[in-house]
Amino acid sequence: MSAPVWLITGAGSGVGRTLAIALASSGAEVLLASRSRARLEDTARWCWAPSLVVPVDLADQRSTGDLATAVHRHLGGRPLAGIVHAAGIMAWSSGATPSGWSLVPQVNAIAPWSLTLALEADLLAAPGARVLFVAGAPFTIRGVVPQIDQWKGEQKGRGLSLALEAAAAKVVMARVLARKWGRNASVFAFHPGFVKSHLADGLPFPVNVLGCLAQPFLATRCKTGEFLALDPQAPGLSGHLVDGTRAIPEEFRSDADEALVSRLV
Q1: What's the pLDDT tens digit per position in 135-193?
Q2: How would CATH label the architecture of 5-264?
Q3: Which of 25, 91, 135, 196 is 20 to 30 A from 224, alpha carbon to alpha carbon?
Q4: How far apart are CA 43 and CA 122, in angstroms?
């Protein structure tokens, strides 16, 4: 039997890096995607199972499609065991992308949604696939509603609020896909805890300096992500926002979830 194949975006640092190494340690073949080839190759050196480095800029919708095509070809008919959507950025402001979307929601929400839909057939080719959306701290999500109709073009001064909206959108995505796929696959949005990463690099001084100073005190593993990716009990939480092994009550449940995320395609 061939090893399960996982795709991890944002695999160069932070949550993506830690989960790529954990999955490889469990025997999975990992496909590592991020903007920086150097960081991906460093992650690959820690992966004891087969790995493939795929540099990609998720700010461009066409690159997202190219990544999905590359993954499909690499699988060669094998099922895709799972996806970890760990790529993300933070910024005070958010410029426009080549596809017209604002940069922060494009990378943090639109790209993972588009990539998941593009690889849906590969995920459902065998039962038991898992998709993980890194959604951020739950206390920042409660009460935040994604304003998808306002995600077009440059957004001066709205970078952080857009990041919160994108996190909320990923919780909605998890619910929508869990209802759509039923028991054929499991999908989660989760709070990863505070993990070493380069997420603060895009923030201005002095916030980025504070982020650098905090790095030695942050976790080097993402235990929630490891539970969702590896523990056989995890599928029982499918469709939920998860903190640790606990599903968090959702305060913005809506019957219009499908209509909301349909605006992303």
Answers
A1: 987 666 777 888 898 999 999 999 889 999 999 999 999 999 999 999 999 999 999 98
A2: 3-Layer(aba) Sandwich (3.40)
A3: 91
A4: 25
